[in-house]
């Protein structure tokens, strides 16, 4: 696969106008306030035996959108004392929280990690899930990007982004966590959730946003036919009368608009061969990101981006942002 998008010399300055509704901030303020009023956050942390001795894990359950319980894992170093910095980690499309031992790298480095399950996902080939979604409504193409897309109020990612905000709040409630030392992290859909949690959930120290999904969405559908954006293309190919209404809904969830509201330090990554989350869509969010930021570029990689090499960047960034464990 050759590079198909803009050359890097143009990507670094690619900053398209934001397609943002006038009531963006009010929509999210009202959404989160309504959920707080109707479904106050409750969190439980229950120890589980994973077979590991240097990392301890707790099974997390917290109140998500609509009062629905959302699962997660909370990992921490064995023998940790109060004052831990915590990374809230979000998972990619069709994935779930996985098995408990699969997401312990940052806990091995001395930090706490809360891994949020994805509602309704986790039935694919990687990272199994344990959280359902009780609010599916309306016609949709198989997948999640078109679920409830007729309005922002019914859209799947309204629920999912609210869960992400609450995951950060849940992590802050653990007895060993320093509530002021919080960082969000994720790749692809997880990158979208990382942006959403950092933008909507109160101040965090930093955000890791690897190859983010749901950014510059209309543009992405015009230059790639890869899933998941192809799900949206198929839906709009059938629902020709709903094109503008769908993109209006998506504007409340587009990472370009969320990025403009994050003042924390950011670490992004991009694969210049990525047909799933095209480089220009990634750079659109990066160049609108309001906080201090850095981009790691993988010229000969696609959506897998840096993998273990990017893990090294994560370890560096977390230490710089949260301080030594």
TrEMBL record:
It holds the Pfam family AXE1. It comes from the Bacteria. Residues 1-319 form the Acetyl xylan esterase domain. SUPFAM superfamilies: alpha/beta-Hydrolases (SSF53474). This is Acetylxylan esterase. It comes from Georgenia faecalis.
